[in-house]
Amino acid sequence: MPDFSDALVDRLSRADHVAVLTGAGISAESGISTFRDPDGLWEEFEPQELANVEAFLDNPELVQGWYRHRRQVVEEAEPNAGHRALAALEAHVPAVSVVTQNVDDLHNRAGSSTVIELHGNITHNYCVDCERDAAPGTVDAAIQHGQPARCPDCDGLIRPDVVWFGEMLPPDAVERADAATAQADVFLSVGTSAVVYPAARYPVVAREQGAYVAEVNPDTTGVTDAVDESIRGPAGEVLPVLVDAVADSDGGAEPTP
Ligand code: BV8
Ligand code: ZN
Question: 119 an active-site residue?
């Protein structure tokens, strides 16, 4: 049984606004490797070696191939009980903002209504020169012919719509994440090692701004010492039990799926 406090349940059931920072760990139970686990075909690469503009320009086909592989994994994956519990929390809290570092689209597919994608979304590609959206399948077709995918309109290289190391985060996403953090009565940090900035600063900023901050992770992280409560366990087990406890405490409602 996950060990969270009655105080957390009480605060969640009385909260007007809950903000949740998620990282790769919440998608681990959907079969999507975190950045730490060996990732099969790409085991010999550090993500930082591929998730940056220099690597892309140096070898566009390799980087396009890596993201195509990851997109295929994402397309075959399903949201898990952790993603679904965050969507279900919306029945008990007036405003739930999911601020995610993940690019796998699983929070959207789980039905969360406010998903702020700090690092973009791997299901979307665009041309680096004219910025036109790339039609689905553009990368697949080029890679299968052993060449980098290029824009049919201007011949520019096609890239995934994700934020690479050294790139600025989308200003509108940062603005929305800042607002959600400032308004949060409770801030949850779920499945993130909290080492990548500026995303990793949100749990600390939330606490400075008066939120009650709890972390859900099987391990300790970069913010474990900075939060009010650290719940040791996998998101797919902890979050459904936590949301059920909130449902029970506010007069009960439908159990989480
Ligand atoms: C920026 C999208 C301004 C792409 C990602 C030098 C030069 C330039 C920049 C820097 C520099 N030094 C530092 C920086 C800043 C840099 C940074 O923070 N680097 C780190 C490595 C030190 N940040 C940036 O570059 C950002 N931009 O700063 O712009 C700027 C501009 C120019 C110069 C200076 C500054 C952009 C960062 C975004 C990078 N893009 N992703 C893609 O996905 O391919 S980052 C990527 O890695 C993820 O999005 C995520 O953010 C990060 C991994 O973190 P996690 O999600 O936490 O995953 P991780 O595997 O680490 O941890 C998983 C956790 O889950 C673990 O704790 C595990 O215990 C737990 N877990 C496992 N199973 C479960 C579980 N938890 C719950 N349940 C389970 N079942
Ligand atoms: Zn173009």
Answer: yes
